[in-house]
Amino acid sequence: MQSIKQKLATTMMLIVVAVWRIFPAPAQGTVVAEAVPSNATPSFGATITVDINIDVSGTNPAQLLGSFTGTLQWNPEVLRYVSHSNIKAPFTGVVNTNVALSGRLTFNGANINGAAGKPNVLTVTYTVVGGNGATTALDLSFTDMLAAATFVNLMPILTIRDGSIRTAVREGNHAAALPKDFALGQNFPNPFSSS
Predict the structure, then answer these.
(1) CATH number of the domain that 151 lies in?
(2) Are the C-beta atoms of 170 and 43 separated by less than 8 Å?
């Protein structure tokens, strides 16, 4: 038979394990999410893509990305939404495009087994509609991010690197639109004069 001390020790150990499972240790290290444009200085009319990547390789102990919910915003006067890749494997999820023409996508994904390293979770395609030198931030934000299996909250160690776009300035286009010289000439015939 176990002594009272052994029973108490076993009970305490079970309580510690139960609390650890309910309240896992906080994540340490860094998680980096980024919005990376295929071309940061595109020309008017060009098609570009923006990759959303989440790098969990800097977590300690190593964590696997299990789930995320995020938003990407941009200036629709500079970039016009065309399409998206859907949430990429190994994740499954949804991309909400209801207000994409207003410059906002909300997306989520999950994978019970998680993903290591730096998975690309979404690619968005745009057409550049902004004129010469127009700029927009690619404003990435997250409301939720958890590790797989441990359900550790990764939000406290998340760093976000927003991308940006500045449309190319074409000097030739401005110069061609300017007149070479200016002159006033005689206005014939003058409808207000009989001569």
Answers:
(1) 2.60.40.680
(2) yes
